[in-house]
Amino acid sequence: MRILVTGAAGFIGSHFVRHILAHHTDDEVLNLDALTYAGNLANLADLPEEQARRYRFVKGDVTDDALVAQLVDQAEAVVHFAAQTHVDRSIDDPQAFMRTNLWGAQTLLEAARRAWSGRQDRRLVLVSTDEVYGALELDDPRRFDEDWPLAPRSPYSASKAAADHLALAYYHTYGLPVMITRSCNNYGPNQFPEKLIPLMILNALAGRELPLYGDGRHVRDWIHVSDNCRAHDLVLRGGAPGRVYNVGADSQRSNLEVVRLVLALVAERAGRPPQEMMGLIKHVNDRPGHDRRYALDTSRLVQELGFAPRVNFKDGLADTIGWYVDNPEWCRAVTSGAYREYYQKMYDGR
Ligand code: DAU
């Protein structure tokens, strides 16, 4: 299969490309990425030679009609990861999110409609998020299933929900063979350190404060990026057009619990008593509109596509910390210049 993967220089996209090239030896991958702050070609720099021959990179924006049309025309399948993904940035600059997340999806869907003109052997996976469902209260035992009404609450999740609706509209109106994934929080190697886990790991390793928003009791559902990539591969090959699949690993934890575990694992590596490091946790002003809790019902993915997560949270977190320790060059490169400015703007005096 010739697969166009958008945003494949980013965290999840680059893991997905590695997964495809390693597990499907006849597949070819084309990576369309604009190389914004979170896109990093270093994430795919060390592909084995045989895999590198089946991989091609094109620098470009997913809202560029002519370029996207040309690339979709060459592809038998599209997996659309390219997005502005960080909630805090969406609060700061919502327009950029609508442009990339909604208009990018529109550009891609329209290109696929024109290029594939009704062919049902083509596949488009639109990567959405569990944040489109809105938030649950801490004492609400329910989980979001795929029929849960969409009720996004941040500019980020609203832009993703708009794209999600649009993709289903293309399925219903034009019969475009599109599948939608709504996955929970990912973690693992190569994640840009604006997100909770890599930010806390780098701060803990450097002995800096760990800025926990509000009371830290907010709950997120976590999946290791390798499990998420296997799930996306299953949806790509076996998903039904017009169908939505939640992607998760049934691993809900409060942010405080996650941060404490990061500190305990870092302390263990350093041979220090964990209690010594817990003082690094600093409660800071909360994120505006901060969603309290997400929890996903993934039974559709499990029952219809046979998904079973393989990485348990504590092991995955310990390995992830190991990766950041073993890759100081990668960390130095992504935390220079613009990142420092971002960090100061977000956290100084918070
Ligand atoms: O649920 C899936 C979503 O997960 C994805 O669609 C998003 O692209 C991704 O960014 C992520 O959104 P979150 O807002 O949940 O991720 P983030 O890592 O920013 O925050 C996770 C939790 O940690 C959230 O409750 C806010 C909190 N937090 C985050 C940061 C960066 C802190 O307490 N301190 C921090 O410094």
Summarize, please.
With 350 residues, the protein is an alpha/beta fold. It has 14 helices and 12 strands. Helix 1 packs across helix 8 (225-238).
Please provide a written account of the structure.
- This protein is α/β, with parallel strands linked by helices and 350 residues long.
- The chain has helices spanning 11-23, 49-52, 65-74, 87-92, 94-116, 155-174, 196-206, 225-238, 255-270, 274-278, 299-305, 313-326, 328-334, 337-347; strands spanning 2-6, 28-33, 55-59, 77-80, 123-129, 178-183, 185-187, 210-213, 219-224, 244-247, 252-254, 281-284.
- The chain is built from 14 helices and 12 strands.
- α1 (11-23) links the parallel β1 and β2 (28-33).
- α7 (196-206) runs parallel beside α9 (255-270).
- The protein is globular.
- The structure holds 2'deoxy-thymidine-5'-diphospho-alpha-D-glucose.
- Residues 85-87, 129-131, 184-185, 195-196, 199, 211-213, 218, 220, 255, 287, 294 line the site of 2'deoxy-thymidine-5'-diphospho-alpha-D-glucose (DAU).
Write the layout of secondary structure elements.
Elements: E1 2-6, H1 11-23, E2 28-33, H2 49-52, E3 55-59, H3 65-74, E4 77-80, H4 87-92, H5 94-116, E5 123-129, H6 155-174, E6 178-183, E7 185-187, H7 196-206, E8 210-213, E9 219-224, H8 225-238, E10 244-247, E11 252-254, H9 255-270, H10 274-278, E12 281-284, H11 299-305, H12 313-326, H13 328-334, H14 337-347
Parallel strand pairs: 1-2, 1-4, 2-3, 4-5, 5-6, 6-10, 7-9, 8-12
Antiparallel strand pairs: 9-11
Helix pairs in contact: 1-8, 3-5, 5-6, 7-9, 7-12, 9-12
2'deoxy-thymidine-5'-diphospho-alpha-D-glucose (DAU) is lined by residues 85-87, 129-131, 184-185, 195-196, 199, 211-213, 218, 220, 255, 287, 294.
